Amino acid sequence: MEEKLKKIQQDYINKISSSKSLKDLDIIFIELFGKNGEVDQLSRQFKDLAKEDLKIVGSLFNLIKQELEKTISTKREEIKARVYKGLEDETFTFQHQVLEAKKRKGHLHPVTQFENEIVKLFNKLGFVQADAPQIDTDFNNFEVLNIPAEHPARDMWDTFYIDKSSNTQTTNHKLLLRTHTSNSQIRILKNNKPPIRMMTLGRCFRYENVDARHEHTFEQFEIVYVDKGVSMANLQFLSEYFFKSILGKDIKARLRPKYYPFVEPGVGIDATCVFCKGSGCKICGNIGWLELAGAGMIHPKVLEAGGINPKEYSGIAWGVGPERMAMLKYGIEDLRLLKSGDLNFLEKF
Ligand code: DAH
């Protein structure tokens, strides 16, 4: 019997010292002290012992029992201390995850990284950032840009309107979610005197069917450049400077006539297709070019509305979708991934 007791003692001391978690210790404790556990079973055998033997075995049994209890509780404290120090312990999965999450470093969203890059690029040319609200009046977003009510161009820029009853501001104009950063133009022109070199970056909204290339909520980047003698040549230069810096030295810009009511002449700006480098492929529809921006010479009516004499000054305005450019630059196929919050996707950047 003594032998048996000592063997149990040794086996369990080994088990306890090699256990790694509080859960392991709980299991050991039950094996030892639970109903039908080792202790229970041993004590049931005592009735068969002679009186003398029982004395010796009984006291040894009590000693071993106490020793094992103590060893378990010491080990328990040791594991707890380890966990709190942030060392690993599988049972404390939640704490473990918290510690892991603390270790993981976040980073800026790929579109934000990309936008920071654009802002730096135009900063170098002396452009400074201007702000404009995401909720704006119909006047600033459309009318002052030469797009009166009922103008067919409004169809291209359908948006979300703010319910009048929830409109606490005192304006007679309808409030809407801006459809483009061009709503900054009138503010920039009114609040500054030429020469003006400004840029606006931010969130815009449209009433869109969402698919791999369209979102109802998206980013735009806009520049406004007004001075004496500003011309389409400046537009060509700035566009190519932009494309080459962002997409690669071999990318060219070409201006194509396009109608926007707030510029005259208006242009669509294409970049050499980044995939086929101009030879024609599925992505560019075999044209060799991808349309990336809208721009033009600021319409005299818009300059006038901003208090600038169109006979003395001329200006260019230019707008681009950073998300579309980021998709081309990083080879992202579905626009919706950008706002998905999917870490598997975001951690690639
Ligand atoms: N605001 C236009 C759009 O969202 C893009 C644009 C076109 C901006 C011409 C401009 C411009 O500044 O001159 O489609």
Describe this structure in words.
The mean pLDDT is 90. A hairpin with a 5-residue loop joins strand 6 and strand 7 (263-272). By secondary structure, the protein is an alpha+beta fold. It has two domains: 2-98; 110-339, Bira Bifunctional Protein, Domain 2 (BirA Bifunctional Protein, domain 2, 2-Layer Sandwich). It has a seven-stranded mixed sheet, with helices on both faces. The chain has a two-stranded antiparallel sheet with strand order 2-3. The protein has helices at 2-18, 22-33, 38-45, 51-84, 93-103, 110-123, 138-141, 184-191, 232-247, 300-305, 322-330, 343-346; strands at residues 128-129, 135-137, 175-177, 196-205, 217-227, 253-257, 263-272, 289-298, 314-320. Residues 180, 182, 222, 260, 263, 294-296, 317-319 line the site of 3,4-dihydroxyphenylalanine. Residues 180, 182, 222, 260, 263, 294-296, 317-319 line the site of 3,4-dihydroxyphenylalanine (DAH).
